Protein 1
Amino acid sequence: MINNKKTIFSGVQPSGILHIGNYLGAIVQWVEMQNQYNCIFCVVDYHAITVKQDPKKFSQQILDVVKIYLASGINPDKSIIFQQSDISAHTELAWILNCVAYMTDLNRMTQFKEKAEKNKETVSVGLYDYPVLMAADILLYNTDIVPVGEDQAQHVELARTLAQRFNNQFGETFKIPEVMIKKIGARIMGLDDPTKKMSKSATSVANYIALTDDPIVATKKITRAVTDSGSEIKYDKKAKPAISNLLTIYSLLSNKSIEELEIKYQDKGYGVFKKDLAEIVGNFLSQFQKKYYSFKDNDIREILQQGSKLVEPIAFKALKNVKEKLGLL
Ligand code: AMP
Ligand code: TRP
């Protein structure tokens, strides 16, 4: 990639369920960036195995993430798409960064604290170390910008810290990446509990709309979504977290501003608003899935192979430089 464009790096875990939070919070902004930047989008399979995965389903889940990327509008002729475990430089750099990261850095990570809380006895070392592997992903490619949802901001901050610390100790090596978070939609909340983010690991499927949900099922999930007290359609995260979340989803899927929607539904109640939103979500999913199901596994494998070929020399060149700085070479 010898040009003057800045480099974007981001990734999604192939953990089975991708929901509209992943799409609206992260993937959508990648699509718009493809013309302006060198884009690298990774399927972070090593991150996904920090929690249990079913080996019988896992290889398909990896392909399915790529299908989600393509159905969202990521163009493999413009952007590089590859599988993390294909490039061993990621785990090698992660080890090196493990020796730069402090336990105190990782002890601060809120996502680990939340996840570990649920499974105290059996939480893996990998889950604890996950942000260091993410830092390696980012730093291998001289990344300028990391577009992610709000929950990943702290992890990108750690990547910055580790890059700076390494540079201070061993001389200028890594570019310091910037996080990019959307103004609207960076934290889509659960439909059953608008005080917590929409999450694939939620206990109830009513929490999220999966990108592969049957449109009829998704329509029902919207109709049944929790609302707030009162009847006014107004954006107010504190007083009306549920309606604010639904307004955000509506706005992003319809390209209408939240103000426009507030006016449109001024004298109408929650029922009418939710019915319209349900239709919009159903239509979006139908169109999305038409594309999603049209891709063939073999073509996806080909895309991943081509992607790996392109990133491999970049990643190993960066790793060699790091090893030299450490006196390993
Ligand atoms: P993951 O599925 O954890 O690999 O997340 C993939 C991307 O989706 C990351 O950039 C996350 O920050 C983003 N993301 C996950 N959940 C949400 C959510 N509820 N709202 C907005 N973005 C999200
Ligand atoms: N940890 C991110 C998530 O769960 C996924 C991820 C792994 C990532 N490596 C990355 C995102 C590098 C951006 C850049 O969403």
Note: The two ends are 26 Å apart (CA to CA).
Protein 2
Amino acid sequence: MDKHQSLLRRLSGIFAATAMLSVAMTAFATSEIVVYSARNEQLIKPLFDAYTKETGTTIKFLTDKEGPLLQKLKAEGANTPADILITVDAGNLWQASNLGLLQPVKSKTLLDNVPAHLRDPANQWFGLSVRARTIIYNKDKVKPAALSTYEDLGNPKWKDRLCLRTSKAVYNQSLVAMMINEYGEPKTEKIVKSWVANLATSPLSNDTRAMEAVAAGQCDMTVVNTYYYGALMKKKPKLPLAIFWPNQNTKDSGVHVNISGAGVTRHAKHRADAVKFLEWMSSEKAQNLLADANMEYPVNPKVKTDAEVAAWGEFKQNPINVVKAGELQATAVKLMDRVRYK
Ligand code: FE
């Protein structure tokens, strides 16, 4: 064997070994997806761990506020490592799709598990949990029979008795956007103006502060997401607060709901695995993990609500598609500005 042949043999040996190694690696390869999440680690990590345990797919994730995450996705463009974006509020998800950061997903599982009004009509994002934005009142000061609708919070009988969270919060922008969709702009403007006229104090920085003001007697009622009520009452069970479900008469359209949700990023590198993960998130197991951990409602109607949450009572849900929260967000912000809702 000459030198040349020997080199060839050695080379082909190396090639064979490399080929075998790569086959082996493929056989044992575990897939991986990358998630950008505006929901905190404490809430989402148990879900990721459960998914990895069940499927072998590992999940890398980064948590931050939705603003910075959207900016990051935008700046990274086609080079983003992110396959999935998770965030709260349809207004935020709509912003992400409007910025071209998401892509449509075709999945019968998601269409089956997520009701039509809780997902993007263009399938770029899907609700994963439901949050109800409802009235919380002081039991010592208000008889629930005196309460009725969101609109009625502007009734002169509640003068100096209402507290509201700031209009800078996306939750209230979404609420007003949904009202604009339902009543039109002139009527919504009248309603929001009448709320402002009833304010007992300038708008509060968050839902919990607003409820604490009600409990402290600064005002008698406010509008918040129910999971904040759940968390606060767990910490301070003696607060004189109770839930009221507005707009429940036959002619009324129900309690305003919003979602937390997710979409596959425009430039996802692991698209198929990302879709599989979203589908799993809509399954019974994941739905319970996600909704119960934050005292929210499952988005999948086949999944049972946590007993503690169910104890707050049943209510009729406003069936407007939550995409309106995004589409009418700018209109809502301008309207709130006009009536000096700070
Ligand atoms: Fe929240």
Note: The two ends are 88 Å apart (CA to CA).
